[in-house]
Amino acid sequence: GAVVSQHPSRVICKSGTSVKIECRSLDFQATTMFWYRQFPKQSLMLMATSNEGSKATYEQGVEKDKFLINHASLTLSTLTVTSAHPEDSSFYICSARDGGLGGGSLSYEQYFGPGTRLTVT
Amino acid sequence: KQEVTQIPAALSVPEGENLVLNCSFTDSAIYNLQWFRQDPGKGLTSLLLIQSSQREQTSGRLNASLDKSSGRSTLYIAASQPGDSATYLCAVRGFGNEKLTFGTGTRLTIIP
Questions:
Q1: pLDDT, tens only, A7-23
Q2: Of A111, A16, A107, A4, which Cα lies nearest the Cα of B98?
Q3: Chain B window 24-53: which residues touch A at a Cβ cutoff of 8 Å?
Q4: CB under 8 Å to A113, separation ≥6 — which residues?
Q5: Digit-coded pLDDT (tens) for B47-90
Q6: What pLDDT sits at residue B110?
Q7: In degrees rounded to 5, what are phi and psi of residue B31?
Q8: What Å distances lie between residue B3 and A58, A118, B92, B108, CA to CA?
């Protein structure tokens, strides 16, 4: 259980275009999903927290108008990189929080997707 | 601001050896600490999660310890195998939110 998928796994786009990445929880409902970015040989940096039915919360320094996040259902969140530039090339990973058993939200664990490699030419 | 450091950045050991990976964090007020494995170009696989009230967790050949007061955690891998080659990341979660702060990882290579 607790499987998270991402689509596509790899995408190449031209500078100035937009690209959408999907994150799905396959066997559980995820009220909260998280989007991370990972540059080569660096660690994961949280970009934003996505809550179903409400606006995403962005980390400091992340442009919300450039990285559009939509979490319209309990199993799907999307990240759209608008007007992509070569410096946006990175590995984007999502995670989803399940409901857990008992306790409040602090007890929930995040499950990670396989990542999406974005290359902007 | 929480900072997580992992040393060494890379480690190569012969197959069969036991090894220890280190993780340190600056703010000891954590809710839990988690160890992940990441294969090249892939996502994260959760290995062990230690709650702040726990001292260690074990799964098979893996044992993770947590010393919250000193801001340290170790991941012990027994009888290493070539299949253990990967990057190992630790991440801490603070109180009051679900944000994970990741270390930069240790790239482990097991030499057959």
A1: 999 999 999 999 999 99
A2: A107
A3: 31, 36, 41-46, 49
A4: A4, A5, A6, A23, A93, A94, A95, A96, B43
A5: 999 999 999 999 999 999 999 999 999 999 999 999 999 999 99
A6: 97
A7: -90, -45
A8: 19, 27, 9, 22
Cα–Cα dist B45/A39, whole Å: 18
- The two tokens of residue A54 are 């409400």
All residues of chain A having their beta carbon less than 8 Å from the beta carbon of residue B105 are 43
A111 touches chain B (CB under 8 A): yes
SS3 B53: coil
Contact A91 B41 (CB under 8 A): yes
Could you identify the residue written with the tokens 């100035």? A16
Judge whether A91 and A37 are in contact, CB under 8 Å: yes
pLDDT band at A101 (very low <50, low <70, confident <90, very high): very low
CA–CA dist A61, A73 (Å, integer): 27
Q: Are strands B44-51 and B30-38 parallel, antiparallel or unpaired?
A: antiparallel
Contacts of A111 (CB under 8 A, 6+ apart): A2, A3, A4, A25, A95, A96, A97, A98, B46
Please report, rounded to a whole number, the percentage of residues in chain B having pLDDT higher than 90.
89
A117 sits in the region (left: phi over 0; alpha: psi -120 to 50; else beta) called beta
Residues 2-21 of B with CB under 8 A from A: 4
